[in-house]
Amino acid sequence: MSTVAFSGPPGDPRVTVAGMSSPALTALDAAGLPYRVIRHGPVRSLAEAAQARGVAVPDVVKTIVVRRGEDDHLFVLTPGDRVVSWPKLRQLLGVSRMSMPDAAAARAATGYERGTITPFGSSTAWPVVADERLRGREITLGAGEHGVAVAVDADAALAALDATVADVTDPEPAR
After folding, report:
1. Could you tell me which residue ranges the YbaK/aminoacyl-tRNA synthetase-associated domain spans (predicted)?
2. How far is the first Cα of the chain from the last one, in angstroms, to the nearest whole number?
3. Residue 82: helix, strand or coil by DSSP?
């Protein structure tokens, strides 16, 4: 694992450790958020991602794309050890139906492939709902490309995203 820290002023040109421009890093810079880029290579599970990033499983944030209607999506941020509670989310949003788009539709809605999705730098700035358990910690999020994540202060990130923060998850079911 290699970690690269960026801490310059917003607007500085940034590239990922892979040497390519990243919409996610550009968006983080524009928001003035300090972050660390963590390049860890391929992982096959959330537990592997946590180990590769050097964090606990709850600090690996899953970014879920949810479809409310035609061309109406949102991001739901959940701790790695939890899953979206559809009844809680529907109640919060006041809707009776939601779905998860397939991989192609998620990419069309965000500009990112599954496994790399982040609300930062998405092709459309969809609303963000974050589980309340993310508060007060450093979290890691996808950075828009496979094998790369960013570590950021959750409270600062949620504020920058103007996220609605609520109890919208349940514990991960035992397997």
Report:
1. 40-154
2. 29
3. strand
Q: Cα(162)–Cα(103) distance, rounded to whole angstroms?
A: 25
Give the C-alpha separation, 117 to 124, whole Å: 12
pLDDT tier, 22 (very low <50, low <70, confident <90, very high otherwise): confident
- The whole-number pLDDT of residue 83 equals 96
Sign of CA dihedral 129, 122, 118, 174: positive
Angle at 160 between CA 116 and CA 9, to 5 degrees: 90
Average pLDDT over residues 153-165: 98
Token pair, residue 5, equals 């820290």
Question: Quick one: tokens of 158?
Answer: 């949620």
What is the value of pTM for the model shown?
A: 0.87
CA 91 centroid distance within chain: 22
- Phi, psi at 153, each rounded to 5°: -65, 125
* Contact of 35 with 6, CB cutoff 8 Å: yes
With a CB cutoff of 8 Å and minimum separation 6, the contacts of 135 are: 154, 155, 158, 165
The SS3 assignment for 110 reads: helix
**Which value, in Å, is the radius of gyration of the alpha carbons in the chain?**
15
Q: Which two tokens stand for residue 102?
A: 């397939």
Alpha-carbon distance 75 to 157, whole Å?
A: 13
